[in-house]
Every structure is written in structure tokens, then in C-alpha cells.
Amino acid sequence: MLLERVNNWFLHCQKYLFTYKDNFFELSYVGNSPQAMIASFIKMPFVKNDPEKQILYPNSRFTKGFIKYRELEDGLYITYSEVSFKANVRFKPFYDLFLPGDYYLLSYNVDINTIQRYNLAIDGVEFANQSWSFLKPGQKRTITHYKGSNGRFFTIFFNEKWLQTNLGDDAIYEESKIREFINDKIDHLYWPDPEGEYLKKFNKISEVFLENNIPGTNNILRLKIH
User: Fold this and answer.
1) For the purposes of burial, counting CB atoms within 10 Å of the CB of 87, is it exposed (0-12), middle (13-18) or buried (19 or more)?
2) At residue 79, what are phi and psi to the nearest 5 degrees?
3) Cα–Cα distance between 19 and 7 in angstroms, integer?
């Protein structure tokens, strides 16, 4: 069902996958789930996929880098990416009404621009060099990267079933800001990390992703521990 819907999206939207507007390249992808996102990236002609190592190489006239992806367990997915932007780029998610779309997205972002002051932005709200972002399912938010940006991004995707199974009865979760946010009407959160409080942990996670070994049980366990 997933691949069928992604193929259908590509068939009908390939003329509009890459557009240029207001000095930005705009790229569309299916945003219902991390699996749909990866599948739609693979369809793009400038993206090479290594399924054995679970890594994408989105190298083109406007981006260069890699995206590593892992499914830790049912309903829990993570990605780690390092991408340099050679042009102004906007990513615009498309949501397929025939696919489930119940994934939350929690991301730690490190984005440094070497040629201009602009950094990562979501719907025009500019982020600090180091920051967190938390989005509820189904958010059609435009993610903007500016020319000269060098970004590293670690993203955790989890769906409602995984959340309730793993955290639903946890006392710490019950009193946490995450639960407060999920139960609130607010659909996204953003907070800066100017002192790099979480950067050391982020670097440890990135080290696991950058290992050359083929991903197996040991690597997945290390990712969970970190």
C-alpha cells in the first residue's frame, strides 16, 4: 500500500517535484511517515539509495551529503543526516489521505551557515545554530535551508501506538512537558540550545551512525542506549 501510494504521488506530481520560486528550489515529498518520506526521496532522480547500509545520498546541484535511516522497532524510526546546501532549498511535505499519518517528529538540529547569517527555518521562523523542534502528526510545515548552510540533524519519529505502549503509563512521562505538549492544542514546539547542553549527547549518537559496520543488533542497541 505504501509503495503503491508513493508511486502514485510520483506519477502525478513528478512535474512539480522541483520548482523554483522566489530564489528557492522547492522540493516535495510524502510526509505521512518516515517510511513514506524515505520512499519518496528514493524516487527522486538525484538521490542514490544503499538499502543494505540504509543510507541515502541526495547529491545534486543544490545539496550534498547523506541521510542514514533506521527502524528501531515497530512505530519507532530514527534518521541522522549531514547535508550541505549549495542553494536556497525549501522542503514541502505532501500528505496522502489514503495513508496513515500519526507520526510525531522530534529533532535536534545543528545548522551553521558559512556565507550568510540565515539558518534553518520552519514556516519562516528562523532557528538558532543548535535547537530542538517537535512537530505533531500531519503538520504541513515548510522547512527552509539557506545557501551556505551545513546541517546535522538527528530525528526521532514515533507514532501514537508506540507512544501509548511505551510511555502511556510511565509516571515521569505523565508529569513531563512532552505529555503536556501532546495533550495541548499547540501543534509544534521549538526551543534553542545556545549553550550546547545536548550537543555532547548528539555527537555520541552521530558517532554510532557514522560507523562503517552494516547495521545490526549491536548498533541498534547502542542507538537505543544513547
Assistant:
1) middle
2) -135, 150
3) 19
CA dihedral 167, 193, 33, 6 (to 10 degrees): -170
| Tens digits of residue pLDDT in 118-147 | 778 887 778 888 899 999 998 888 899 999
Give the Cα separation of 155 and 3 in Å (integer): 22
As given in the structure block, the three cell numbers for residue 224 are 537505543
Cα–Cα distance for residue pair 10/61, rounded to 1 Å = 21
Identify whether the C-beta of residue 56 lies closer than 8 Å to the C-beta of residue 47. Answer: yes
Dihedral through CA 69, CA 63, CA 114, CA 121, nearest 10? Answer: -70
Going by their DSSP bridges, the two strands 143-145 and 89-94 should be labelled as antiparallel
Q: How far apart are CA 199 and CA 207, in angstroms?
A: 12
The reply to whether the predicted model has a pTM over 0.70 is yes
Residues 6+ away with beta carbon under 8 Å from 41: 29, 47, 49, 56, 58, 67
Residue keyed to cell 542514490:
48
Helix (H, G, I), strand (E, B) or coil at 205: helix
Nine-digit cell string for 41: 526521496
Instruction: Give pLDDT tens digits for 37-92.
Output: 999 999 999 999 999 999 999 999 999 999 999 999 999 999 999 999 999 999 99
